[in-house]
Design a protein that fits this description.
With 498 residues, this protein is of the alpha+beta class. It is built from 15 helices and 18 strands. It has a four-stranded mixed β-sheet with strand order 7-11-12-13. A three-stranded antiparallel β-sheet has the order 8-9-10. It has a three-stranded antiparallel β-sheet with strand order 16-18-17.
Length: 498
């Protein structure tokens, strides 16, 4: 598709030429009220405080609100779209702006509720962040406004997947009774879109016919004595005829492939898809942006409030029209001691371990009683149960075994889990420090191939102090006292951060 515009200078000044559309031109067309038949005057003003010396047209404030225009007359010009459609376009453009008060344009990230989720504690809109994992991008909703503005702690943060699944289930359930109306609307929209494309094709053919007729008239009006001019005009006429023939062949091929009216088979396919809305939602042709636009059409906001660091979350969905639905959700957490039922879980493990059950049997019993893991899995792994038993000190587990492939543990040597418990930090975090080279250790060659960490009393105290630093401390870039930025070789280990 091409857009017609008039030349402003040069030999063809005032003539209509056809060019490929560009972004700013399309934005100007969407914002111009003349396309809705509205005559407007005073859409921009001059702000004296913004005037620059020597620049006559500086200081202009453009794109004022419609209520601030000096003159607005509807129906004064030929309209391409209705006034209502024009106002909807302006509202959508305003909502797509990257501003704090706007929802923002729907992006391709997997988090479906970006711009819709609000914090139930401070009322600010939650931001979306992503991190790469083995399964792709993992979304997270974070309340960071007061943290970035005032340096206060973050109100709350939570994984995006569980909240998206809840809201999507609510939306699909609400849309189920409207399946018949949805199929009729979809069929009408598909038919209208094909008719619009067919109209554009006919306009292109009309322009090609006009170009051919113009080239013919120019050739016929040429004086026979001007043979060079006549020969050039003849070539232009032949080129216009060839372009018209090529365009006509393309239009015929398009009509054979996509007729203007939907066939009975296509109508039946639309009805089948509309009757199975979940399948339409999960179809490969439905993009993430399409799903986000659908959610924004029926939902105004989703307010979430986490119960501290536990897995309990209270969500309030505000639908278009003002109706609200409330639900108590369960989110995944990072550590097992964040679970609200952690005391009951440990007490139950104490009881089952006292009865002599092994780790696998305890895991099965906990699954039968409804205890879930921090990641919301239905069943604990026996290894996790064994770690909990050692943490609670119920049995002399492997940590009390000092035998290694080189004899016994020597002075200043620890099993990885024992050192983590001594410092009071998660085993996974200490293992991450080992992988980064922040601590020294080796892997035992005897089963179960545990890690042996070398750390004397001073090293243990250093690691304990590092663990007390706030989250994200090691990832920030700082300047040391000698002006060396973080990231130089001597600052790689965590002891030099700060």
């Amino acid at each position: 598709m091409q857009i017609g515009m008039r030349e402003r200078s040069g030999p063809g000044k005032g003539e209509v030429i056809w060019r490929a559309p560009h972004q700013q031109g399309l934005i100007n067309m969407l914002r111009n009220p003349a396309y809705a038949g509205i005559y407007a005057y005073g859409r921009s003003r001059t702000d004296p405080s913004r005037r620059l010396p020597g620049r006559e047209h500086s200081g202009r404030v453009r794109r004022l609100e419609a209520g601030q225009w000096l003159v607005r007359i509807e129906g004064a010009l030929p309209a391409y779209i209705s006034v209502e459609q024009y106002e909807r376009n302006q509202a959508r453009l305003a909502a797509n702006r990257a501003r704090a008060e706007s929802l923002g344009a729907p992006r391709e990230g997997p988090a479906l509720l970006g711009g819709l989720v609000a914090c139930g504690i401070c009322g600010q809109r939650l931001q979306v962040s992503y991190e790469a994992s083995g399964r792709g991008l993992t979304g997270r909703y974070c309340c960071l406004r007061r943290h970035h503005t005032y340096g206060e702690p973050r109100c709350q943060q939570m994984a995006a997947r569980f909240l998206d699944d809840h809201v999507v289930a609510q939306v699909l359930s609400a849309l189920a009774p409207a399946a018949l109306e949805l199929s009729v609307t979809a069929a009408g929209q598909a038919g209208a879109r094909r008719a619009e494309v067919d109209r554009i094709w006919r306009q292109r053919l009309e322009r090609a016919d006009f170009a051919c007729d113009r080239a013919r008239r120019q050739y016929q009006l040429a004086e026979p004595e001007n043979r060079l001019v006549a020969r050039q005009l003849e070539r232009e006429w032949e080129a216009a005829l060839a372009e018209r023939a090529h365009l006509g062949e393309e239009y015929e091929r398009y009509q054979r492939a996509r007729p203007a009216r939907l066939s009975p088979a296509e109508l039946a396919a639309i009805r089948a898809l509309a009757s199975d809305i979940p399948a339409l939602w999960a179809a490969p042709a439905t993009t993430v942006a399409d799903r986000k636009r659908l959610l924004r059409a029926v939902i105004e906001s989703v307010q979430v409030t986490a119960d501290g660091a536990t897995e309990r979350v209270h969500a309030t969905v505000t639908w278009a029209g003002g109706h609200q639905t409330r639900a108590a959700l369960t989110r995944p957490v990072a550590r097992i001691d964040q679970l609200s039922y952690y005391p009951a879980l440990t007490e139950r493990i104490r009881t089952l371990a006292g009865e002599g059950l092994d780790s696998a049997a305890i895991a099965g019993q906990l699954a039968a009683e409804g205890f879930r893991t921090p990641r919301l899995h239905d069943r604990f792994h026996p290894g996790e149960i064994q770690q909990l038993i050692r943490r609670l000190g119920l049995r002399p587990g492997l940590d009390h075994d000092h035998r290694t492939d080189q004899g016994s543990l020597g002075p200043g040597q620890w099993w990885l889990a024992t050192l983590a418990r001594e410092i009071g930090m998660p085993v996974a975090t200490l293992f991450g420090w080992l992988k980064r080279g922040w601590i020294t250790g080796r892997q035992d060659t005897r089963p179960p191939y545990r890690w042996i960490i070398t750390a004397d009393h001073a090293e243990v105290e250093r690691l304990r102090a590092l663990h007390q630093l706030p989250p994200g401390y090691h990832n920030r870039r700082r300047w040391t006292d000698d002006g060396t930025p973080i990231g130089t070789p001597k600052d790689k280990e965590p002891g030099n951060h700060g």
